[in-house]
Amino acid sequence: MMRIGLVGFGGYGWTLYQNILKVSEELDCRVVAAADSHLDKCPEKAEELADKGVELFSDALEMFEKCKGKCDVMYIATSINSHMPLAVAAAGAGYHVHLEKPPAATVQEIDAMSKAFRDANLMCMVGFQGVHLDQYRWVKDQIVSGRLGKVKTLTFVAGAPRNATYYARNNWAAKLKSNGTWVLDGPANNALAHQVNLMMFWASDKANGFATPAAIRAELYTTDPLESHNTAAIEIQTVEGPTAYFIASHASEKQFGSITIDAELGQLSMAGGEVKITFADGSEENAPQGPSCIEEMIRNFIGVVRAGDASKIRCSLDDARNMTMVIDGAHESSSRIHRIDPAFVKQVRRDNGEEFTVVEGLD
Question: How many CA atoms within 13 Å lie on the side-chain side of 131?
Answer without folding.
Answer: 28
